[in-house]
Write a structure and sequence with these properties.
Layout lengths: L1 H31 L8 E4 L3 E5 L6 E4 L5 E7 L2 E6 L3 E8 L5 E10 L5 E6 L2 E7 L3 E3 L7 H22 L7
Parallel strand pairs: 1-7
Antiparallel strand pairs: 2-5, 3-6, 4-5, 6-7, 8-9, 9-10
Length: 170
């Protein structure tokens, strides 16, 4: 009888520890990656989104500028560019340093048409809308990534040159 009572108490203690441990672990996992909310500003990778402010802004602060670039176009309008995949935050201040808005910025990709070609451990990424074209995605095989980056840089230089009115014929 004494052994059964001790075993029952030990079992109850063990269940309580495991239950509390599971709740704490679940809370820790939830805190590691907060769920997305309606207040998140979602921007597509390599695209720009305009955002209107309710009050005139004087300063814009981005937690991680390598994830998103934010430009104050006017006192009440921002341009937000997705630079790389990830999550950061945005704080907008008025002329007195008061917070106008504080939001989380989430840069997402266009996953619906992305095709990843795997060759062993190497990966190449393509945007297939409707024809497949090479795209820059962090984590792609180094030589492929560098080749696509070089071509993208050249294309950007040509576009900037044309936009500046410098045209050359070869």
């Amino acid at each position: 009888m004494q052994i059964a009572k001790k075993t029952g108490l030990w079992l109850a203690f063990l269940v309580a520890v495991l239950t509390v441990g599971g709740i704490v672990a679940a809370d820790a996992r939830a805190g590691m990656r907060a769920p997305r909310t309606a207040l998140d500003l979602k921007v597509k990778y390599d695209q720009v989104r305009l955002f209107r402010l309710d009050a005139p802004a004087s300063e814009v602060i981005v937690g991680n500028p390598s994830i998103a670039d934010v430009t104050l176009l006017s006192s009440k309008r921002l341009a937000i560019a997705g630079r790389t995949y990830g999550t950061t935050n945005l704080i907008v201040l008025d002329a007195e340093g008061r917070v106008i808005t504080e939001r989380r910025l989430v840069v997402e990709g266009e996953n619906a048409h992305i095709v990843n070609l795997a060759r062993g451990t190497d990966r190449q990424s393509y945007n297939c809308t409707p024809r497949c074209r090479s795209i820059l995605v962090i984590g792609d095989e180094k030589d492929y990534f560098n080749r696509v980056a070089s071509q993208s840089k050249t294309k950007m230089q040509i576009s900037e040159s044309v936009a500046a009115g410098n045209t050359t014929s070869e």
